Amino acid sequence: MTNPLSHLCIHTMTTKPWSLAQAIDGYAKAGVEGITVWRQHLAPAGAKAAGAMLRESGLKVVSLCRGGFFPALTRADRRKALDDNRAAIDEAAEIDAPLIVLVCGAVPGLDLAEARKQIVEGIAAVLPHAEEAGVKLSIEPLHPMYADARSAVNTLEEANNMVDSLASPSVGVTVDVYHVWWDPHLEREIHRAGRSILSFHICDWRTPTRDMLNDRVLMGEGCIPIRRIRSWVEQAGFRGFREVEIFSDERWAQDQARFVEDIKRAYVEHS
Amino acid sequence: MTNPLSHLCIHTMTTKPWSLAQAIDGYAKAGVEGITVWRQHLAPAGAKAAGAMLRESGLKVVSLCRGGFFPALTRADRRKALDDNRAAIDEAAEIDAPLIVLVCGAVPGLDLAEARKQIVEGIAAVLPHAEEAGVKLSIEPLHPMYADARSAVNTLEEANNMVDSLASPSVGVTVDVYHVWWDPHLEREIHRAGRSILSFHICDWRTPTRDMLNDRVLMGEGCIPIRRIRSWVEQAGFRGFREVEIFSDERWAQDQARFVEDIKRAYVEHS
After folding, report:
1. The pTM is what?
2. Which CATH number characterizes residue B211's domain?
3. What is the number of other CB atoms lying within 10 angstroms of the CB of residue A74?
4. Residue A226 lies in a domain
5. Looking at beta carbons, which residues of chain A come within 8 Å of B222?
6. B12-26: per-residue pLDDT in tens?
7. Does a structural domain hold residue B171?
């Protein structure tokens, strides 16, 4: 019998109140196989110590979140973003994360087409560093409601175009159901992405959503056809983890160990 | 010298606290040429009396908001939606509104592709009634953040596809900068829409947006390139009103006559 929790990964941001040590302990005890580490959870211990803890735990590090935020209004700020992405690549290598998820960035008032150009240039600039470190860079299209200040890459089509233009096996895409579920071209673009799909994030969309950032819900509690999107991703050749990434003020106020149990149930029943 | 307020239209929902009579009076005094009437502002007086008031005022009625909401989980509810749209068409005719804006509808848990199919069928079903009444039906793509419960039509491309498949001079599209500004295919789809652009709505996107429904801001207070989008719409052949449609709890709490003065300034300076 297959383990029903096989391929389950949880983002440390999903259990935001937990330190990295608590998350490692909590996930391992709950039988979760994979962990995606957010940089703010790495920071207190540092990447080196965190890497040792993670290797010790037996958890599989699925990815590091997050790099990106390339566009800026000044050259100095664009350079700073490149330095920060190179630092993230080093951290990913320290914790054996095979990839970094890129939230590509946007700046209110900066033309979106210009922002997209700066994103491609930014990825190209840090790509040699990533290739040398053996870390892949994964472009995550973000929901259009984040086009003002978080990402100018708002459809999988746009992300695929960037992967095409960067033409490196070290660059791919992340499909997060929360960001892309509404897109009439989603199936087509998932098939187009094919093997360049490097990771797959799940959660659900609440109706009504009360907060644009921190009101995601568990799989099955919203309107996203998660199983259908998963089937497209798997038809495209993806065989990796299903990563549970839920930002929720409501859930963060609860007991996190019980939340992990709820995640396990929702994972089995609705993903 | 051209009147700098030429082609300014305000939606009654923009000054939501005002009754229709107050809006008519306030707009006329302020030198606003056009009015788009929301059905909730028609309801108290009824369409017949409202039509008389509007004709008396000299304001040009630009459109009636809103029809749509075609998809439903049961046949009975779909039929009810058709009846309601036919009633809206009759109201539009009563007040000399040349078109009805369609917020096409979506139902949480109803597959988006199925919802889109029901939308096209719904428009087709009420189209003869609209043609007979001399009222056009304008499909307004809504921002993808409303794909769960308000509209399964979330890009201008999708709206254009529907216009193509309905193939009637009485069906067109509404371009609202708030809903479409993020779209990388916006320029292409505006040119594709061409003369089927029946109306053009303006406002701006606040960063950060604190409420998904009622936190729109005045032109110039956000990040939308309104003038660029306007230039595309005009290149496509559109010569109609620029309709100010702002839902804002903050603004609705203020003096509405002063708000109208702010709208006039923003219209001249940023649209």
Report:
1. 0.97
2. 3.20.20.150
3. 8
4. yes
5. 108, 148
6. 999 999 999 999 999
7. yes
